[in-house]
Design brief:
Layout: E1 30-33, E2 48-52, E3 58-61, H1 66-74, H2 78-89, E4 97-101, H3 107-112, E5 120-125, H4 129-135, E6 141-144, H5 150-156, E7 160-166, H6 175-184, E8 186-195, H7 210-216, E9 219-221, E10 229-234
Parallel strand pairs: 4-5, 4-7, 5-6, 7-8
Antiparallel strand pairs: 1-2, 2-3, 8-10, 9-10
């Protein structure tokens, strides 16, 4: 008599389904990094830290849902918001238009406005929070969806002087596609600001490979490509 089928493990509350491949390069060669003091790959019912053996990207598996990730990180990123805006101001002093991707309640545009008072900030988010941000006048235009949605990508193509992805790439199922979409909505000469979570913090990601990916998409990296914060300029020859 055959054994009864094992029921699927339900996803953890506040997390996406577990994945068997790397969200950055698609490799299935994942290595689980045990938590300190734990002998095995983790405790049942808890997310574990995975490391890709091919591209060295690190991510929580299962990945946190976007809504949960925003709430957890929100209290700890205010200083990083200021530092990110200041970093961009060294390379781009007066952009006319700026799109913040994965903006949530538009906390980052709200902070960046102190450094860019004459910039028009728009926001895009997968949740209706961006509509509340527009009602609160934190952004001027609000888009609900993802930058990879065809109707959004077509509408916003080559429209912005700055596009920011603040701790957003590592929460995407396909970070490479998200980065490609962000470059596509930049004007030639526009700037991309990418901030990924510190590897020591709650949602770790490895920035190795980000600079090379930006160069392949027609951008010039203006900061250290191994930093958690990367500023790049889209060249006129970029697709």
């Amino acid at each position: 008599m055959s054994a009864p089928p094992v029921p699927p493990v339900p996803p953890l509350p506040g997390y996406e389904p577990s994945r068997a491949d790397c969200p950055w390069c698609g490799s299935r060669r994942l290595r689980t990094r045990p938590r300190r003091g734990e002998p095995g790959p983790g405790v049942p019912g808890r997310a574990v830290l995975e490391r890709c053996a091919d591209c060295r990207h690190r991510f929580w598996n299962p990945p946190p849902a976007e809504e949960r990730g925003h709430r957890v990180l929100r209290a700890g990123v205010r200083l990083r918001h200021r530092l990110a805006a200041r970093a961009l101001s060294r390379h781009c002093s007066g952009p006319e238009s700026w799109l913040d991707v994965g903006t949530g309640d538009a906390d980052f545009p709200h902070t960046a406005r102190a450094y860019f008072p004459y910039t028009s900030f728009d926001g895009l988010d997968a949740t209706p929070r961006v509509l509340r941000a527009r009602a609160a006048e934190r952004v001027e235009e609000a888009y609900v969806g993802r930058l990879t949605d065809p109707h959004i990508a077509a509408r916003l193509r080559a429209r912005y002087d700055v596009v920011s992805l603040f701790q957003h790439l590592e929460r995407l199922p396909d970070p490479r596609a998200g980065l490609r979409a962000a470059v596509s909505v930049l004007r030639p000469g526009g700037h991309l600001l990418v901030d990924v979570a510190d590897p020591r913090r709650l949602f770790p990601a490895h920035a190795v490979g980000l600079g090379a990916e930006l160069v392949a998409q027609g951008c010039t990296v203006l900061t250290g490509d191994r930093s958690h914060r990367v500023v790049a300029r889209k060249e006129a020859s970029a697709p």
